[in-house]
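Justification of computing resources. Each target in the renewal requires a structure prediction run like the one illustrated here; the chain below, 345 residues long, is used simply to show the kind of job we budget for.
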Amino acid sequence: MAIKNKIRIIFDSEVSLRLDKHLANLRLQELVSRSFIESLISEDRILVNKIPVKKSFLLSKGDEIELSLPDPPDFHMKAEDIPLDVVYEDDDLAVINKVAGMIVHPGHGNPDGTLVNAILHRFAGNLSSGRDPNRPGIVHRLDRGTSGLIIIAKTDQAQVKLNHMFARREIEKTYLAISSGIPDPAEDTIRTQISRSLSNPRQMCVTDTGKLAVSHYKIIKYYHFFALVKVKLETGRMHQIRVHFAHRHHPILGDLLYNTRRQVHANLPQNMKRKATELLTTHLQRQALHAWRLRFTHPISGKELSLEAPLPDDMIYTLNWLEKYFDIDTDGHPYNMILEENKQW
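Resulting structure tokens:
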């Protein structure tokens, strides 16, 4: 678990592995390269069971790895002319339709090319100072591989009020997702506690002692082996939808962190495995998860806002692929169902 600049990892494999190789395999954002890992080890910033070790140290199941990271660099926040899809804008806030693959704010290994760099250019000096100097205007976040709507605060007053609204769960967030496997029942609430995985700090997991996470879902359309699902978040934990659906054994299609290609193949007939590989390597190279709709009261004007972002091309392609190979219900096209069915849900 990460605490400020410390990360704690429990090695849980039955097979021994070199320390440096295991850390590289985790692909943590903070560990930007193998050479950086080696420098941390040489500086005794990486301990195993509280003891400095060499990079070739062989880990055994149960070993505790503790990383003490140096302070993050000064990112020298710069404006970058990166195209943005601005869905809504006024003097106090903006709502952006974020593309999949864009990181929200700079961090270790990602000093530029982020949404923050883009909004610094798009809105010039018209951004709130934010809670962190490296995150001006940022009120909430979306995972790198998740597309869709994200709110940007342009004034400090709007930032403070939006923060309170998120904390009080006054902003309705609805996502569209494609699941591997069909959730049962068709409509349900998933209520668990979530915390960071001790074996892989890139992952979150369901635990007995984490923070409360509540997701409401409803299947929009069934396919053989898959489903198009609408998900409304009551809370906003890191990776919440991805963890909840993996916990229910119906992980999000394309989510390589919680749903490997081998898992996808395991549920498919032999003649479809190759087609699924082509889909996931060529057309859907991220989790099929889209922040589709935001509904909230404007924090300054009091105006009621209901904003939607159309599905991106890769998810449209995937739905067409499902229609071609796995269709069950021919009564309606999924896009029409999204627009027409249960609009108030």
